[in-house]
């Protein structure tokens, strides 16, 4: 039997990169998948890939920085599938590369709103629904930069650290209701986010990034999806409040 047969997985930022890989992996395991994202050029190909694994996949257009839109997205998923059993809060944007004194208030707010506040927005309504079910799994996508600093990416680093703290607090608050909350901290993964952040366009910087990982390569979105499947399934039934590092050895140094 497939691991997620009859279960509903709610994924933000699911049209590309890690989110899409997790959506495809969940659908392959039999899940009804609600992909929550801003509609983009990736829409057709992403939905085709997910629906090829499970035709019941649903796209919900949503700006996760808007609390009312998040509530509507959660309500739509529950209305369509009857529950939210697993939630992956994955939406994120890269940082604007600049030192703190050069950052504008807009730069700071944009990164914190998309990368951290959106996780709170989603958890608020996901946990409300899971509380009525007395079960559920929430997984928050952070980063290795949630555990270390990185010059020029202060906003991104602050948000990633915040996600880990939010994850631990939520795990303690909801454990007695049968709800588990964990986080994933990927290293640098070969996704469109790196391209948007300009890291794939500068060969010197790219080589420096590769050198930070003892395995001497970027990670793959599918490798992070394997970690997601583990934390979302009963294979990790006694794990809550922890962060799983998928980082090619980055944090071991």
Write up what this structure looks like.
The protein has 253 residues and is an alpha/beta fold. It has one domain (8-252): Rossmann fold (3-Layer(aba) Sandwich), CATH 3.40.50. The protein is built from 8 helices and 7 strands. β5, α5 and β6 (179-186) form a beta-alpha-beta unit. α3 (67-81) runs parallel beside α4 (105-133). The chain is globular and about 50 Å long. The protein starts with 7 loop residues before the first strand and ends in a 7-residue tail after the last strand. The mean pLDDT is 95.
Give the secondary structure arrangement, pairings included.
Elements: E1 8-12, H1 17-28, E2 32-37, H2 43-51, E3 58-61, H3 67-81, E4 86-89, H4 105-133, E5 136-141, H5 154-174, E6 179-186, H6 192-196, H7 203-211, H8 221-232, E7 243-246
Parallel strand pairs: 1-2, 1-4, 2-3, 4-5, 5-6, 6-7
Helix pairs in contact: 1-2, 1-8, 3-4, 4-5
Features:
alpha/beta; 253 residues; 44% helix; Rossmann fold; 7 strands; globular; 8 helices; seven-stranded parallel β-sheet
Order of helices and strands: EHEHEHEHEHEHHHE
Name the strands of the widest sheet in spatial order.
3-2-1-4-5-6-7
Could you say how many structural domains there are in total? 1
Helical/strand content category = alpha/beta
Largest sheet: 7 strands, parallel
Helix content: 40-55%
Low-confidence stretches: none
CATH domain class = Alpha Beta
- Oligomeric state of the chains? single chain
Cα-to-Cα separation, first versus last residue: 40 Å
Short synopsis of the structure:
Helices cover 44% and strands 15% of the residues.
